[in-house]
Protein 1
Amino acid sequence: MPQVPILMPQLGESIAEATIMRLLIQPGDEVQADQEVIEVETNKAVMGVTITCSGKVTSISVAEGETVAVGAVMGLIEATEEEIERSGATPLADGEAPAAPAPMTSSIGSDGAHFATEGEYREGTSPTPQTGGRGLPVPVGTRGAHYLSPRIRSRMDELHITEADLAYVTGTGAGGRITIDDFENFLDYVDGWPSRPVSPMRRSVASSMQRTWRRPIASAGRPIYMAPIILHRRNHPRKPGVTLYFLRALAIALAQAPECAGYMVGGRILTPRRIDLGVAVQVADGVMVPVMRNVDEYTLDELIDEYNKVVSQARDRKLDPAYIGGGIATVSNFGGFGLTFASPMPLPSESLILGIGSVQKTPVWSDEVECFIPVEKANIVASFDHRVVDGGDIGRLMQKIAYYLEHPELL
């Protein structure tokens, strides 16, 4: 009978590969059309691969943990001519052998020790400075030190190493330049360190933060009185998530001052067309940012169900594609980890992120009772692209946010 390949599908506009998380079928299994047969992880979410026709699994050519390119054959299904015609599946031609998927990993060393993925040798503490020409954990700062020869760049490409990773290497060449010996000595030095493979999620976060840091990012913060939110939430029958209050307040404020989330492109500053806002959700080995659309057009109550749904999907790493990408700003509640202040980093596609610190009781002087009284406060921090807006713009934006947070009935 004809053989129908199980292909790695195109799982997103910018996704070129995915990692096999779970094989849900084995050779010999009977499967049905549209059945989920393989669970894969991209740099955005965990998704299921389905099949187009019913039949019997004859082979599986991938293993859990492999990273496979889009379009690669991951297995074969034996199907009848009638089923192929009914489903519109494309079988292999007679005598055609399926191309084996190429794992997207690298190794170095004659002993096969794994070393390749971006940031993998960052595990553990910083290396102790040593003499003798080894790579040292001292950032290169002298003039001309950032020049890298074609030979080094070729090795970097081979091992998926970026220039940011070479901040650990001291150059011994002219002007502090990193030589090929410096580079190879450093690889030898870190080769035996404890390590773990970089997951697609971690690789995505690393790439995003490196691209974000190409811009001048500044941060500004101020305290917010939390008693109004706490009281409003306590009396609300559906107990909205605390982060949702901040998401809604940011949406209203940006609707009034959208230039605070603008983009600089060449000689123009673009103003967002819609108030689509992301919410940062901590997941295993990274952060997911589902994006809610037109947040300024809906009330707090109207957003509760959607907010709970997207946060739940993000935690399960199974986001609906409708909630992926396209945001103009993000809200990150780092206070859930007990942090009172932080400098969150906006995504490369955004120029603004609002961070929320943990609630703290602070003594504040009361003229009415002539003594200090405990007041619940939390810091909010806005990190922004300083090319687009200045501190005064952000200060006025945060005043608006504070006003709505301290009058939650307006949300």
Protein 2
Amino acid sequence: MRLAHRDWSAEPEAWARALDVSREAIELYASSDVIDLHLDSFIWTRIFGYDLRRKHGLGLFGRHFYSQVDFPRALEAGLTGGTWIITTNPFKPARWRRDAFFRNLDRIKALFAETASDFQHVRTAAEYRAARAAGRHGAFLGIQGGNALDHALDDVGRIPDGDILRCTVVHLTTSSLGQTSNPLPRRLSGKEGLTDRGRDFVRRLNDAKIFVDLAHISRKAFFEAAEVHDASQPLMVTHTGVAGVYEHWRNLTDEQLRVVADTGGTIGVMFQESFLAKKGATADTIVDHLAHICDTVGEDHASIGSDYDGAISPPPDVPTLFELPKLVQLMLDRGWSDARVRKILGGNFLRVVEQLRG
């Protein structure tokens, strides 16, 4: 099926007016690879049948929580690629989590097959570029919560070749694999760091060339995972803030940024306002976090991982994907080069994917 949507790229002046940005910002954005490292919209399809194929407005809570993304709005926003996430329910038994993951993998792949005129499931940078040459959005897939596969770690090998690009070791709860950064379950569990099972899990992800995503993991477990991780493979942290701008349990220290950069990896800045600043976060605050990554470890390691539809509250001036060109305007206002902007929008991510998978 062909998805009905407005092609704003054919109307750059109107697009610029709609967002109150310059035509220069629109043209730079529209000519770039624009890839969001973390889109959680599929969770709402699973929970209450949110139809990703249909254009929605904001949900019951306005810009908060959900209905920030769907397939038509991704196209209208000029999102050329993204990592669409299968999230794990940690409160179900391990076998149920495993079986649910494989069902959901088939289900989300079917959504891309149904919308193949506009979307294509891709596994490598080469496949992404082929999708773009055909005018399609390149859709990567990821797992939020490695406990989707902790019933039997051999299940990592059951994933069809390359179907999953990356996987967070943990999510918001401490599991058999290791400790979350979330302070409440960490205090309740009495567990610390990465478990032996978690170390084995990291090695299995390496063997399968699935990116080890160190979002959500505790700082102790972060360094332990990095130590066991295959040093020849780049690490990712797909959706996070940075403590150098705002100290928060969810955000990375400069030392953690350096660990990721030393592998050639990239760090995606997320849009949850309470992780960006104590109060008053805006699109400019997102750019502050990107700037800190660039200043600390270099512009080759900064990306965007919004976490839209991940039950987040984005800043009020970027409530949905459509407002992403505002970030470009703010970057240009700071005097950043076109090359830096293109790297952050998608170039760094593609370089990292190509490094691991081609």
